[in-house]
Structures are given as structure tokens and as C-alpha cells.
Amino acid sequence: VQLVESGGGLVQPGGSLRLSCTASGFILRNYYMRWYRQAPGKERELVAHISSAGGITNYADSVKGRFTISRDNAKNTVYLQMNSLKPEDTAVYYCNTLPPRDWGQGTQVTVSS
């Protein structure tokens, strides 16, 4: 039973990335899902939240208008579309259920010119 994040990488400021979160061993559609991030030397912070059917989403003020959380329950996958990326978005990004399970490895996002 695990969560696997992917899609991170190095991108220039203003660029875009789409992160994916897949689950093995359990069904994501039964859960509200969240994306978090942790920058070096900082605590993990909540970035975005989506209800089990996808009808309700919420975002941290720092990413509102730039990031979009979505899900495809048929594919057992949750996404985070990140646009207009800024250097301060650099972090390891994690997904998790609500309530949370064991954390995955995360995916590194680096925004730099």
C-alpha cells in the first residue's frame, strides 16, 4: 500500500509542470486527497485539497490562481497542474489521503533560471 508521486523536474520561472499521484493497494476515489510541499529547512505545508468526487477544491493562498488540483478516479490518479512557477515553489511535493497514510518519496520540483 503506497502513494507514488511523479512529474517533478527542473523548470524555469514562469514555466509549468504537472505532477501525478498514483496509489497501489487501495482505491483513491474513496478519499479526499491533498498535495503538500516541503522546501529545504521548512515544514511541510498544505498546497491543495480535493474532495473524493472532485467537486470541492481548496488552495493555499500562495498558489491560488496558478495551481490546479484534479483527479481521475478511473485511473486512480490525482494531479497537480502548476503554472506560472516561481523560485519559491521549489520543494519536494507529496500527495496524501485525508486522513493521511504513510508518506511516499515525493517528487522534486526546482524552479530556477
Could you name the key traits of this structure?
globular, 10 strands, single chain, 113 residues, mainly beta, four-stranded antiparallel beta sheet
Q: Tell the overall outline.
A: globular
Secondary structure: helix percent? under 10%
Number of helices: 0
- The residue ranges in which pLDDT falls below 50 over 5 or more consecutive positions are none
Major beta-sheet overview: 6 strands, mixed
| Strand coverage percent | over 45%
Estimate the mean pLDDT confidence: 96
Q: Return Rg in Å.
A: 13 Å
Instruction: Please count the beta strands (DSSP E, at least 2 residues each).
Output: 10
Structural class: mainly beta
**Roughly how many Å apart are the termini?**
37 Å
Q: Strands of the largest sheet, in order across it?
A: 2-10-9-4-5-6
Instruction: List SSEs in N-to-C order.
Output: EEEEEEEEEE
Which SSEs are present, and which pair or pack?
Blueprint (H helix, E strand, L loop, with lengths): L1 E5 L2 E3 L5 E8 L7 E7 L6 E6 L6 E3 L7 E6 L4 E6 L8 E8 L8 E5 L2
Notes on the structure:
With about 110 residues, the protein is mainly β. It has strands spanning about 1-5, 10, 15-25, 30-40, 45-50, 55-60, 65-70, 75-80, 90-100, 105-110. It has a six-stranded mixed sheet, with no helix packed on it. Strands 1-3-8-7 form a four-stranded antiparallel sheet, with no helix packed on it. Strand 4 and strand 5 form a beta hairpin. The chain is globular and about 40 Å long. The chain starts with a strand and ends with a strand. The mean pLDDT is about 95.
